[in-house]
Predict the 3D structure of the following.
Amino acid sequence: MLGLAVLPLSVKAAKSKIYLLQDFVRGFRFYKGPELLKQIQTGEKLRLQREKENKQDALAIAVYYKNEKIGFVPKEKNEVLSALMDGGVAELHAEITHLELDAETWENVHFAIYLLGEESKEIPAYLKTVIQPEYASLIKTGDELYEALVENSSNNAVYGLIHNAFPKGEDMDKAVRDESIIISNRKIPEHLAPLNLLVNAAGKKTKVPGMFFSDYYIANINRIAKIPDAIKEFKVIEDGAGKGFYEVVFTEQIKNKSNRGR
């Protein structure tokens, strides 16, 4: 017995995550989630807590980030998980797998619930694989961008903004698909800088190659779609190889540094 107690950790059986559920945190916007979103990180642990006295759902499982409640396990998927927790059959763990700040609040945080078991080749791959979420609230097509621009516009000028640059529906769809809507980081008005229009969900900026005369980056479509009143036009430009892009030109023009403050 003494010999077993002092075995090095490397000799002990490796543990594997066996995923039982992967989904978005339900009810995220009704709790502390939105306030904590900027400090939440992918990979962080979550705590699950049964709410047997919940009047809406006796099988409810609340989700906590640190000591703050941020929502629930989806109601339609909690029956087996609540039974496991109530019976003390297995210890359930949870962690954040994806964060998407540009999605609607109900798709901001994607998480996984898992068991820890011994590593085994017999465990199906799908139980050991983190899935990529499908976001219904993110713009993926030209039609979705069109609708978002119109919805967020305060006047009918948005129709000219769209149709002058994209006379055919397929033009906008191709622009979204090819990520060819771009912005020069030198031309972003100061009041729009906090929106981080060049940053994607992973916090990265993607520079457009071949643009030797300015610093152009792929625009964050979801954020651009929320500010149509600040956009003057989508200007068609080409890179050094003749590839076409749509530059977002803002209604407020950037003045030269020498003219600022005058």
Observations:
- The chain has two domains: 13-127, 142-259.
- The longest helix spans residues 142-151.
- The longest strand covers residues 15-24.
